[in-house]
Structures are given as C-alpha cells and as structure tokens.
Amino acid sequence: MTAAAIEARGLGKDFGSIRALDQLDLDVRAGEFFGLLGPNGAGKTTTVHLLATLLAPTRGTARVVGHDVAQDDLAVRRAIGLVFQDTTLDRDLTVQENLRFAARLWNLPARLAVPRIDALVRQFGLGERRDDPVRTLSGGMRRAADLARGMLHEPRVLFLDEPTAGLDPRARRSLWELIRRLREASGLTVLLTTHYVEEAEPCDRVAVLDHGRLAALGTPADLKRDTGVASLEEVFLARTGHPLAETGAA
Amino acid sequence: MSTRAVYGIVVRELVRFLRQRGRVLASVGRPFVWLIFAGAGYAAVFAGRNEIDYRVYMAPGLLGMVVMFGALLAALSTVTDRDAGVLRMVLVAPIRRGTIALGKALGATVLATTQAVTVSVLLLPLVHLRPSLAGGLLALSAVMLSSLALGALGLVLAASIRSLENFAGVMNFVVFPMLFLSGALYPVRHLGPVLRMVAYVNPLAYGVDLLKHALLGAWTGAGYGGELSPSLDVAALVVFAVLGLLAAAPLLAREGGVTRTAFRQRA
Question: What is the mean pLDDT of residues B246-264?
Fold first, then answer.
C-alpha cells in the first residue's frame, strides 16, 4: 500500500461570509499526478494555500506527507514545494541570487546548495541567463526559475498553482516537459490546479471543484465514461450544470 | 530559529540597497542638505548666545535622522516585497514568522548603521567634533540600537498597511513628528508638557539623547547634552525593539490574505 501524500478531511475555509471552500475530502497518493480542475473562484488556490499552511482552515483537517497542517506547519513547509500563480522571485536580483536567497531560507548549507543550483539551472535551460536580473527574463524562463526555486530543497510534494497562466504555447510545452521529467526522475507527487481541461487530461486523477465543492473525482477516463461524454469539459458541464469556460460571467 | 535564513534576508536587503544608487546618494546627502539649509537659519537665530555652534548641536540629531530614514525606508521593502510577491516565497519557507521579522529588522539595522557611520565620517570633521574612543563607541551603540528599534517599528507599519500609497501617507505623519519631537533640532526640555510627553514615546528621542551623551558631553553643563540618563535611553530603545518585533511577526503572517484579498475583490 502506498502512503498518502495528501489527506484532507472536511477541509474548509471561510473568508467572512464567503465560503471559499466548503468541506473537501481528498486523498492524493504518493507519486501521483493529481489535478484540481475548476473555474476561477472554485476554491483551487484556497485549497493549495490551506495545504501549504499559508492559510489556517476554518474547519476540517489535512495532513501532507503525514504532517498535520495546523499542528506541524514547519514540517509541512519543509516537505513541499509551491509554485504560485505569479512569480515570487525578486525581479531586481539575478536568477542565481534568487536561488541563493531561497537556499538560505530553506536552510541549505552552501555545500549542498551550490551544486544543486548548478544542476537545476542547467536542467531548466537557464544556464546562460543565471547572472541576469529576473526582470529581463521571458515569462517562460521566469516560470522555469520559479520551478527551480520550488524544487531546490527536493520536496516530496510539489504544488503547481495555475503554472502556465500567462505563458505562450511554446513556454507551456517546455514547462510540462520539465515537470514530466521531474516526476519521472524522483517519483515526485504533483498537485496541479488549472482551469484548462487539456492540462488536466494527462493527470492520473482529477478532482473537479466548483463553488468550493467537490463536483467529481476520478481518472479522466473514468470521469468521461461514467458521465457518458467525450471530454472533461462536458464532464464539468454535466456535473455542475454550467460550462467551465467563463463566458460573460464576472 | 534559522540563522541562515536571517542571514539570507539581511544579505538580500544589503544587495538591493547597494544596487539603488539614488537611494544610496539620498541617504548620505540628506543630512548635509539639512545641515546647510536648516543649519544656516537656526545658526543665525542661535548666534550671540555663544554657548554652542548650532551646527555642532545638530550633529547628533542629523545622525539620528539618518538612522530614522535609513531604518524606516528599509522597512518599506516589506511593502514592495508584498506587492512583488517575494514575501510569499519567504512565507512558504520552513521558518517562523519571528525569524522573518528579525531578519527584516536586522537588515534595516545593518543598512541604517552603515549609512550613519558613512555620514559621521564626513559630518563630524566638518563641524569639528572629535569624539573620544568611548564617545565614538557609545555613538555607534546608539546608532545600532536606534536602527533596530526604528527598523522594528517601521516593520510594524509596513506589515499593517497594504499599499505603497498608504505607506507614503503614514510615513509623512510619522517621520516629521518623530523628527521634530526627538530633540534633533532643539532640546526636548524646551517643549511644553504635552509635547514632551509625546517625545517620550518617540524611540528616536532616546536614540538622539544617547547620541548627545556620546558627542556633546562638553556642552552638558550649558544644557545641550543628553537630558535623560544613558541607561534609561538604552533600556527604552531595547523595549521599543522587542515590542516592535513581537508586534511585527503576527502581522507579517496576515499575508495568508493573498487569497482573502482575491475573494474580497470579487465580493
């Protein structure tokens, strides 16, 4: 039996009177590539921030690689990598300086950090740009540098929150290629949030979120077969009663 | 407590500061602008008393001013870090909020102290002040302690406000009263009882007082040296620093509100 990488039980979050996440039960297996699919405001980012201990749950519990998010937040943060929707790099510092800064925040001694930074920078195609300020990098390279930052401490679970937002198709493809290689190399558990069905398609399993509630959960193939439709887009429509793409709404 | 994380935060503050040439020049040039313009005017008013050259009297206050601007503006980086998203990288790292607050406050201390030492090297010979070794060491301690206290206070301000525009407003309502009620430009004892009370909750007043003990010892008899006991100054600065750090740590964690803000905008 494989240990659960992520276990959530009745996990929920309110912001004042707004119920951002209702009551989520979720089990992500170690090594799994797991997708959270839903439109903006479905509660995807809230879920990631709860699991990453950046938010305190209003109700329910969650464990990440066995550590309770409320009791043992440092152990959780040590075990995870998180790539946010927007870059968190210091645009005025170089790629190298950003990674050195991150290495110190994650308490990596230089003797570990230096070779790891070298390897990541090379692996992620940033070798020639490592001494350039992040400000001068293209969106795709910046995202690659963000990913390098998230992988620096060799996390067991990687959260990718809408990682391809704002990237052109080529940059998207090379990012997915990087993530595929990372998963193959290390058996990394990846939890991805996206509102693009084509990004959820290659996931091992997909949870469909809508208005803070779990609308469906399963492998893409099972979801389509059980709903009797041909695409995840139609799964979303059938399970929630409205289309995934925001047309005209807010 | 991760000392490596604290070190990393301090190094980043220092590197960022040194890359901003305008900020470096402003921090060193600002006290000389005050020395020339405010100094000239007040010196004329003071002239004839013959007790102290006003420009000599100003020197500790100008160093206090360098510390104040240096430390508070360093705290500003917390606001830009929040805007740019860098604070989230720091918050998702496996370190306590207190470690972040300490790193930021020490970063402000290093920056403000470096600026004050640089300015002293130029300013003190200019006004013919030659402190003794003991005086110099006391002045350095005063600068470091005031930087830490003001850095911690600036962090509380920066962490509790949301945008750069707000920060500028708060700075105007904090910086000028703090400066005028610090004894930097005239002795606190000349103020009325109400303003004197306000001066005693102003951390800069204790820093400037300690600097006067260090630099204006010869004029104490004439009423221009330190007015409080040096140990009271030190104790007050330590209390401000500790309270500031304790208050700043939980405020930094409110950044969890990235999501909260997004939901508020939609509501």
Answer: 65
Task: Point out the residue among B19, B89, B94 whose CB comes nearest to the CB of A88.
Answer: B89
Query: d(Cα B121, Cα B135) in Å, to the nearest integer?
Result: 14
What is the layout of strands, in order, in the sheet containing A205-210?
A80-83, A157-161, A189-194, A33-37, A205-210, A213-218
HSE-up of residue B261 (Cα within 13 Å, Cβ side): 9
Cβ atoms A77, A155 nearer than 8 A:
no
Please indicate whether, in this complex, the C-beta atoms of A88 and B85 are within 8 angstroms of each other: yes
Q: How many CB atoms lie within 10 A of CB A58?
A: 14
Give chain A positions within 8 Å (CB) of B267: 16, 18
List the single residue in A90, A104, A250 with the smallest CB-CB distance to B266. A250
- Give the Cα separation of B184 and B59 in Å (integer): 8
Determine the residue of chain B that is closest to A48 in CA distance.
B259
**Is B168's pLDDT higher than 80?**
no
Contacts with A, B 79-98, CB within 8 Å = 84-86, 88-96
Give the mean pLDDT of B14-37: 90
Cβ neighbours of residue A109 closer than 8 Å, sequence gap 6 or more: B4
| ipTM for the complex shown | 0.90
Residue A14 has pLDDT above 90, yes or no: yes
Could B259 and A49 be called an inter-chain contact, meaning their C-beta atoms sit closer than 8 Å?
A: yes
User: To the nearest whole angstrom, how far is the Cα of A225 from the nearest Cα of chain B?
Assistant: 34
The reported pLDDT for the residue numbered B265 is: 47
Contacts of B89 in chain A (CB under 8 A): 88-89, 102, 105, 149
Average pLDDT of chain B?
87
Residue B227, pLDDT score: 87
Phi first, then psi: give them for residue A131, nearest 5 degrees. -100, 15
The 3-state DSSP class for residue B184 equals coil
Interface test with A, best of B82, B89, B252 (most A CBs within 10 A): B89
- Is the pLDDT reported for residue A71 higher than 70? yes
